[in-house]
Design a protein that fits this description.
homodimer; about 200 residues; mainly alpha; Arc Repressor Mutant, subunit A; 9 helices; elongated
Chain lengths: ~200, ~200
């Protein structure tokens, strides 16, 4: 078995253990129990639970980038496609996983390395959204008055809020998706706003 | 000392203990240490840490309602005032408190009673925002085409996202506030959108 396979196995086991136990009570033994490895073998690859979870966040990031890489299409299509890709969980993702991720997010101020790794998700999204908005301004389909980076940050804030609400209040994301689509259609596309005198 | 004073003391001690220890590691002893009461005295008032924290969420809710009760003014002023009241932390609120609240939010699926109490905050905000938007439509200052409840939910999602980001990535809320203000000014006020043919 190559190192890559071992790492993938451990990441898969971490995913299952997080869904089963949540983050707060997670132990290296829980992760070992979900894999075909011993706890000692896990410690051979990762010094601590903290180090393993930092690696897990990087593994998630790679998957996130792959899953949300904007398709071809018009800037409008790419923007709405990216929003959908973030709001729609992968079909095989457990409900419990979003909860575990919010637990990890809440640990960002306490666990060195978590904040930087979590910020990468937002930075990646802001960069992708900004590029799409700039393309749309350039080809004339988006309002030239909009600030691409501020708008991208705003959309990311909405996406973060929807993910938090899914865990906290159990509110489905359908309303957020509808409102964000309307925001794009009526606010960001060119010719939707009256020119102020 | 009346029961009300005792309850207020315990709530104040819970606030301090959450800021000092976070939620995950919080014990009844930590809360007792922040008050002039013994752990046994705390247990006299609250059977368990869980019960005490449910009471604490209700205490926070009362403070939140008081702090965000919309002022008089035009619907536009009341809407922006409410957004500011939610985004601006009270001057005396510790940075650590937002983190403890996000930890508690992440426990909503595990701790019976947390979700209902957390949902009350959102329901209150949605109700207030919906009423303001309806008033604005009625007096002609807001776009009659907007859906008050969907719009209110969308604004709450943005506010939730900003609170999560403050903890997770440390991003300040200034950008969110600017974009939400712009959203209100250019999207919700009457006569800003071109009528679609």
């Amino acid at each position: 078995m190559s190192n890559g396979d071992t790492a993938d196995d451990i990441m898969g086991a971490t995913y299952c253990a997080l869904c089963a136990h949540g983050y707060a009570d997670l132990t290296m033994q829980d992760i070992a129990d979900e894999s075909d490895k011993s706890k000692a073998a896990l410690h051979y690859h990762y010094d601590s639970k903290h180090e393993l979870l930092c690696a897990f966040l990087e593994y998630l990031y790679d998957g996130f980038v792959e899953r949300t890489d904007p398709d071809d299409g018009t800037p409008r299509e790419r923007l709405l496609g990216l929003i959908d890709a973030v709001l729609d969980k992968p079909d095989d993702e457990d409900e419990e996983f979003g909860t575990a991720i919010l637990e990890i997010r809440a640990q960002a101020p306490y666990e060195p390395g978590f904040r930087e790794r979590l910020t990468r998700f937002d930075d990646y999204l802001i960069e992708q959204l900004t590029a799409i908005l700039e393309d749309g301004i350039e080809d004339g389909s988006f309002d030239p008055e909009l600030d691409p980076e501020d708008t991208a940050q705003f959309i990311v804030t909405v996406l973060t809020g929807a993910a938090t609400e899914r865990v906290t209040t159990g509110r489905p994301v359908a309303c957020t998706k509808g409102m964000l689509t309307e925001y794009v259609e009526t606010h960001l596309l060119a010719g939707q706003r009256e020119v102020e005198a």
